[in-house]
Amino acid sequence: MNFDRKNLSNEQLIHFYRSILLPRMIEEKMLLLLRQGKISKWFSGIGQEAIAVGATLALEEDEWIMPLHRNLGVFTARNLPLHKLFAQWQGSKDGYSKGRERSFHFGSKEHHICGMISHLGPQLTIANGVSLAQKLTNKDKISLAFTGEGGTSEGDFHEALNVAAVWDLPVIFLIENNGYALSTPTEEEYRCISLVDRAKGYGMEGVQIDGNNILAVYDTIRGVRDYCLKNQKPYLVECTTFRMRGHEEASGTKYVPQKLFDLWELKDPVKKYEEYIKSIGVANDEEIEKIKNEFKEKIEDELKIASTNHSVDADAEEELNDVYAEKMADGWQMAVNSVDNSSPSSVIHHPSPEKRFIDAIKEGLHQSMQQHSNLVLMGQDIAEYGGAFKITEGFVQEFGKDRVRNTPLCESAILGAALGLSLEGFKSMVEMQFADFVTMGFNQIVNNLAKVYYRWQQNADVVIRMPTGAGVGAGPFHSQSNESWFAHTPGLKIVYPSTPIDAKGLLIAAINDPNPVMYFEHKALYRSISGPVPQEYYEIEIGKARHVREGDEIGIITYGAGVQWAEDYAAEYPGISIDIVDLRTLLPLDYFSIREAVTRTGRVLVLHEDTLSGGIGAEIAAWISEHCFELLDAPVMRCASLDTPIPFSIELENNFLAKARLDETVQKLINF
Ligand SMILES: Cc1ncc(C[n+]2csc(CCOP(=O)(O)OP(=O)(O)O)c2C)c(N)n1
Question: How much is the pTM?
Answer without folding.
Answer: 0.96
